[in-house]
Task: structure prediction
Amino acid sequence: MNADTIRRLGRVAVLMGGTSSERAVSLDSGSNVLDALRTKGVDALAVDGIPALIDAIRAGSVDRVFNVLHGSHGGGEDGVLQGLLSALGVPCTGSNVLGSALSMDKIRSKQVWQALGLPTPAYRRIAIGDDVVAAARDLGLPVIVKPACEGSSVGITRVFEEGDLQAAIELAASYPGELLMEQLVVGDEYTVGILGRDALPSIRIVPAGAYYDYHAKYVAEDTQYLCPGLDGEAEAAMRALALQAFEALGCSGWGRVDLMRDRHGANWLLEANTAPGMTSHSLVPKAARATGLDFASLCLRIVADTVADREGA
Ligand SMILES: Nc1ncnc2c1ncn2[C@@H]1O[C@H](COP(=O)(O)OP(=O)(O)O)[C@@H](O)[C@H]1O
Ligand SMILES: [Mg+2]
Result:
């Protein structure tokens, strides 16, 4: 990208922080993106949270937004920010209102995928007071219990015995929104980054502990990441599925799709992320690097492709 194109991006607000459960991760992502854009000569400023962004827009100091405000409820990943910015005519990276809102909600994401015949583990939506033992018997243990609208593995418990169900439900219910209980897929974990209309090489995640929990995501240095995670046809099939799943939710721009691959080699969609992590442990930057795209160039690719650019607004 030449200096002229970079100048035409104008003043870029890197939106981070906020009030979601992923605030700390988002601040880490945001400061990396800010530094990267600045090394590329982009006029970038840090903005913490949506109210501060509104002030900056009103003050006339924002031409476009690089969104790394993870999560919902004060995060920028659930469609609220996207609706606000589209109403104000401010271009923003990542997916539009629909793609963001659908991806944030794991239950609705699964409903769309199921309707299209895309593979996602069987699940039950759980409300407080439901017979959770019956639901778990229906699905068959082990299961995994999650809040429908969180991220970073918060509020998630793997359940192997009926006696542990209640505590798992209570933990998930301590977060806002609905809950789901899903069949636990035994196998390997993968993620596929999406950039523009392409799936990046898959990453196989090998946590040292039991699974890819909050600690393995952000703290542990012993989680292994293999990229590409597969080869040949298996790799091509996983990338194609991830891209199809992403686009089925109305997502665009960039993002990441999380999957499991069972012992028989079948792929299972878990969720899509529309403002994924950009920390030093994060996965989209790792996958981009495997294609020769360094972190700063990745940030530049993302910021040059906003919803407004894509939808011709
Ligand atoms: N059905 C499942 N089977 C096996 N592991 C799962 C399943 N669902 C989630 N996990 C594990 O929990 C982690 C977090 O779940 P995920 O659905 O990706 O939510 P989020 O990343 O938004 O917290 C996954 O990375 C994976 O390690
Ligand atoms: Mg995930």
The first helix runs from residue 3 to 8.
